[in-house]
Amino acid sequence: MKYSIFSLARNALSGHKNWQPAWRSPDPKPEYDVIIVGGGGHGLATAYYLAKLHGITNVAVLEKGYLGSGNIGRNTTIIRSNYLLPGNNPFYEKSLQLWEGLEQDFNFNAMVSQRGVINLFHSDGQRDAYVRRGNAMRIHGVDAEIIDQHSLRDMLPFLNFDNGRFPIMGGLMQRRGGTVRHDAVAWGFARGADMRGVDVIQHCEVTGIKREKGRVVGVETSKGFIGCKKLGLAAAGNSTTVAKMAGLELPIESHVLQAFVSEGIKPWLDNVVTFGVGHFYISQSDKGGLVFGGDIDGYNSYAQRGNLPTVEHVVECGLAMIPSLSRARVLRSWGGIMDMSMDGSPIIDKTDIDNLYLNAGWCYGGFKATPASGWCFAHTIANDAPHELNSAMRLDRFRTGYVMDETAHGAQANLH
What we know:
By secondary structure, the protein is α/β, with parallel strands linked by helices. The protein is built from ten helices and 18 strands.
């Protein structure tokens, strides 16, 4: 069913009793051309673009829980393309371009809100670094501008500009950045893929990967064996455990990243704002809640929950930037399992194992990359070769030394 003003009017006349399900709940077939392990944003986007752009519709997406139960529903919804390095900048700009037309593309309201992303800076050195980043963005045709303190005071008067330790001197702004409704992204891609013949199979956990003569031929699941000609892994924080089923060891650690939302308040924060000294980022949802987050918890875990010291750390950073946050009550929190690569950049590549493809290592950046990740992963699977946009995101870069260290922290996942 195509959503439109006309379908809304027709169903209003029938008491809204004739809406069709957004996607089917099929039983798995014995074999598929492509199986995608992971029904999060990246897995669903991959299936969508395989069907839409490459005509590969005999595809199954296997999700061990329900759609949206993983990181796609456990993040702070920020989208942006303010990256420095050549391997990252064009990729994330492609993603932002896809976000800008995504709702019309898959006929679903994902609530894309390009409200602007502002990264604050607090010293001369940090200002110079942001100027460099902004210049690199503009060279690639990406919008960027430096906002001085005077202009910031007019835009965000509640910031603690005169903080004794971390005075706010200005910020780097990307006006096309913003937020998107995370659950709606999963639902929209699932619906778009389903309409093109893809089987989205929920509550189907992969328990093993079968290989014959070195080639992947299918997966063992909680619903039985399912054969495939190609297998794509898009399992986020569970990437290492799933890849190990095929005998593949990944340079990835799994860490918990917490996010929080406050009670609803009146419209107050128009932009997405990040603290340049501590790791803190905040925006306001359409319901009025303040959505914010900070650092990973810093220890390996597969639990979708975090610890209290990190909560305290995040709140301290928030109050240093916006003292009036002390009057808002935190309503709830949640945790996502981050697949932290050793250089802080993702992996989209064909592996050394025949018929096995990998999408992993997204660290903090997985949500905003969702459309481009699926777009590039679908291209890689369909053509057995990476697209130019993900050509630097090869798995073998950790062996060859061609790493992409965007944040210049080195090979320490707990610092990314």
